[in-house]
Amino acid sequence: MSIRFKMTTIAVAVILLANSLLSFLALRYLGSVWLGEVQTRVQRNLNSAHAAYQKHVELIAAFLAGAARDRTLIDVIQRSDPTEVGPLLDDIHRSSGVDFVALLDPAGRVICRAHSEQRGDDLSGDPLVGRGLRDPQVVTGTVILSRDRLAAEGRELADRARFELVLTPAARPTKDTVRFEGMAVAAVVPVRDAQGRIQALLYGGNLLNRRYGLVDAIKRDVFPREMYRGRDIGTVTIFQGDLRISTNVTMDDGARAVGTRLSDTVCEAVLDRGGTWAAPAFVVNDWYITAYEPIFDPAGRVIGVLYVGLLQAPFLHQLNVINAVFLAIVLGATVASLILLFMANELVLAPVRHVVVMAQKVIGGDMSARVGIRPPGEMGVLCRAIDSMAHAVAEREELLKYATRQQIGRSEQLASVGRLAAGVAHEINNPLTGVLAFADMMRDKENMDEQDRQDLELIIRETKRVRDIVRGLLDFARETPFVQKPMDINELIRQTLRLLGKREAFQHIYMVEDLGDNLPLVSVDRNQLQQVLLNLTLNACEAMLDGGTLMVGSTTENGRVVVKVTDTGCGIKREHLDQIFEPFFTTKPVGKGTGLGLSVSYGILQQHGGTLEVESEVGKGTTFTITLPAVPNNVVGGEPPAARTA
Ligand SMILES: Nc1ncnc2c1ncn2[C@@H]1O[C@H](COP(=O)(O)OP(=O)(O)OP(=O)(O)O)[C@@H](O)[C@H]1O
Ligand SMILES: [Mg+2]
User: Fold this and answer.
1) I need a labelling partner for 175 at 20 to 30 A (CA). Which of 82, 151, 342, 453 fits?
2) What residues does 553 pair with on adjacent strands?
3) For a pocket test of ligand 1, which of 544, 577, 598 has the largest count of ligand atoms closer than 8 A to its C-beta?
4) Angle CA 66–69–74, to nearest 5
5) Is the CB of 314 under 6 A from ligand 1?
6) Ligand 1: residue whose CA is nearest its atom 7
7) 271 to each of 193, 267, 536, 614, how far by Cα in Å?
8) Are the C-beta atoms of residues 246 and 161 closer than 8 Å to each other?
């Protein structure tokens, strides 16, 4: 799985999750805010409807109060002439437009009714009249009119009030199928004579059953001309008890939905407990956002309900539009952030791709390959670091190649010179032995003068010198037998230095031993290794003709024994450093050095699986470093492994 895929997947998941969570919460919040808003509006509408209802009652009261002040009415009452009262009431009835008007005596008995012959009945039981009698001023309110009372007020009112119940599943169960009572808004107004004494009560009102003018007027007041798809948004209903007696909610056939009843839930909240109820509800045939409040009679009993409802569909439509816009914005933002994410990914991962390409080139052997680019920030730092690393690796490889080339060259050189030297040495060795033997014998002769003796000594000395050189050549060619034994290198060093210390040339040299403890054993040919140490220490001595310090140290490093021979002599020139291991390279005057010491030592160490390296600074000194493989699991004093002969 690529980094890109992982990063993209994680980021996309985070974005999608966050956005869907955001949308979910925001939509829920929007929905609840919206519902609250609409609900508040319905509540306001209900308040307006209540005010309009109240205004209607006040109007009736105002009209009756006007009529009660009519002097003719008072005169007629004082004369108590029923034949005159009847036409007067008819007049009031006609001009006011109220459904019923009656004149009561101060005890609450009916003196006369407009358009009805019925009189003499006692209305003091009517809660409105009751209050009018107790408190002689204008009293208004909503009252329930019984079947008989309606019949007394007129046939037409009784018919209007009669409802055959329409059965609906949500309504409260009831046994009756027909309702005969009516509900009216009415006012009772005292009629006073000139002295202010109450002569009679004027009682008038409107039956609300099937009186659609009132609900339509309220609707016009509260929801001025609000329509949705050809339907009124706002609806108003008046309930008598739980019965819909006047409404502008229509059924599917367009008829007003009267005769149906309130749902049980609302009944309980409003009729039983006298509270208000507001919530979305399914009314008749559609969803409305509704609000209900109780209608009280003058005695404080709940006798009906006033309802306003707003068709939910248009608001839902609004909400859906808002939601759609919101979702579109979120979607847009999501798409935009995904595009940004892909671009950012591209930007971040492009350098990674460069690095990968570069690494593959390096693996393929192209050490010159570099990342090259330097993007800002950590990526830039990383690219720079990788380039530096590649550069360092390339340099090291170049050095290694060079060193290997040198090594190979040197080994080849040694091998060819060795073969040549071996051949020559063999040829020279035999005659030389003869020369020496005869020269020795001649020296023992008795009759020899001093001059001859001295010449013979010279011959012997010079021949010995030649023999040494030949021996050196034979050593170099490794013609001499070679026996390896495990031994303590410190012991060998001490012995060598003791040997040297006695020499004249070392008298002005300060010698320091720095030998490590518990060194592992090394498996070497004693004579040969001693020769190496002698070669190095003699070279050091020869480099310090004016005196100095010779330090020989031993340690162990990575499982190898390391011996360092350091002098404070003249040092080796840079241009000679590459040549000193070559056979016959010497800077010493003719007759002084053969230039074989270092190449022989190099060869010996190589044969022991060891190395010889040099570090030098002209005027300061030189250090030769020998490394030899340690005999495994063996320190000084341990069990020596079996000797080996090469
Ligand atoms: N410790 C040293 N300080 C300075 N120069 C050195 C040192 N060791 C070696 N050299 C240089 O390296 C050359 C080669 O040394 P090498 O021992 O092979 O030959 P040599 O000393 O000249 O002759 P010989 O065969 O007698 O040892 C020397 O001539 C000298 O110039
Ligand atoms: Mg030497």
Assistant:
1) 151
2) 514, 564
3) 598
4) 140
5) no
6) 539
7) 42, 5, 123, 115
8) no
Tokens 């052997």 belong to which residue?
365
> Which residues, 6 or more positions from 354, have their beta carbon under 8 angstroms from its beta carbon?
371, 372, 373, 383
- How far is the CA of 114 from the CAs of 64, 85, 203, 450, in angstroms? 13, 9, 11, 192
CA distances from 623 to 358, 500, 590, 631 (A): 41, 18, 25, 25
For 430-459, write each residue's pLDDT tens digit.
888 889 888 888 888 888 888 888 888 889
CA distance linking residue 278 with residue 266, whole number of Å: 9
The three-class DSSP label of residue 626 is strand
The pTM of the full predicted model, rounded to 2 decimals, is 0.55
Residues 6+ apart with CB under 8 A from 603: 414, 418, 476, 478
Is residue 159 a contact partner of residue 253, using CB atoms and an 8 Å limit?
no
DSSP classification of residue 270: I
Question: Distance between CA 583 and CA 594 in Å, rounded?
Answer: 8
Cα distances from 127 to residues 119, 120, 140, in angstroms, run 19, 18, 10
Q: Are 191 and 73 in contact (CB under 8 A)?
A: yes
Torsion sign over Cα 9, 12, 18, 19 = negative
- Sequence-distant (6+) residues with CB within 8 A of 140 are 57, 58, 60, 61, 128, 185, 186, 187, 188
In whole angstroms, give the CA distance from residue 425 to residue 475: 10
Amino acid at 409: G
Atom of ligand 1 nearest to the CA of 594: 25
User: What CA–CA distance (Å, rounded) separates 140 from 186?
Assistant: 6
Mean pLDDT of the chain: 87
Q: Report whether 104 contacts 123 (CB < 8 A).
A: yes
Spatial contact of 374 and 546, defined as CB atoms under 8 Å apart: no
Is the distance from CB of 204 to CB of 58 less than 8 angstroms?
no
CA–CA separation, 42 and 46 (whole Å): 6
Q: Is 460 exposed, middle or buried (0-12, 13-18, 19+ CB in 10 A)?
A: middle
Q: Roughly how many angstroms between the first and final C-alpha of the chain, as a whole number?
A: 58
Q: What is the DSSP letter of 402?
A: H
532, 586, 624: residue to mutate for ligand 1 pocket, most atoms within 8 A of CB = 586
By the 10 Å C-beta count (0-12 exposed, 13-18 middle, 19+ buried), 104 is classed as buried
Q: How confident is the model over 198-219, as pLDDT tens digits?
A: 889 999 999 999 999 999 999 9
- Arithmetic mean of pLDDT, 182-195: 92
DSSP 638: S
List all residues 6 or more positions away from 378 whose beta carbon is below 8 Å from its beta carbon: none
DSSP letter (8 states) at residue 646: -
Output the pLDDT for position 74. 85
Contacts of 7 (CB under 8 A, 6+ apart): 345, 348, 349
* Among the listed residues 256, 252, 254, 178, the one whose alpha carbon sits nearest the alpha carbon of residue 213: 256
Q: Is 531 in the pocket of ligand 1 (CB under 6 A)?
A: no
